[in-house]
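Field reference: "sequence" (input) and "structure" (output). Example, Chloramphenicol phosphotransferase:
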Amino acid sequence: MRHRRRIRTVEHLTDAPPRRGLVVFLNGTSSSGKSSIAAELLRMLDEPYFHMPVDAFHAMRSGTPVPPDRLDAVLHRTWRGYHRAVAGMAAAGNNVVVDHVLSAEWRLEDCLSLLVPEDVVFVGVHCAVDELERRERARGDRPAGLAARQVRQVHAHGVYDIECDTGVRDAHECARQIKDFLPARPTPTAFQRLRARI
């Protein structure tokens, strides 16, 4: 009897009306404050959201050593899988906060090809280079100068729906800025404009 009741509950859930999830896509260099903003967003947004940071996908990999000549291929497959996981979650109707570093042009192009452009809020997360370097030193878990090397490419596309600067505002203020933007976000979105350009 219990088993039948459980089956009915699952069948009932599959009858839920279809919907697409909203993707709040945070793009910025390493140490720019994306994860801190994402944590604040999850606390303040009115609907359930999943935080999907790219670092979490790299952390899922086993500790098996990767030969240097295969490392680029392994990383490339990880990023491609991450993009498809985000797209899958959104397609299933889940709201997602993405925490990514678009430090290679193909990553943005891959995301543009996979995500529904009108359902993406593209957020540029900025921070002055000297502050990025200070944060790297304080963290001690990033190669020196990594963020400075990423800055130019990460924001090279030059188009966002909204931008914030974590050197000027703290994570809570940036998250509040993003939350306040969501109800009246304009169209075409940044992803729509970028897809049309590419």
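The chain has a mean pLDDT of 89.
The longest helix spans residues 68-91.
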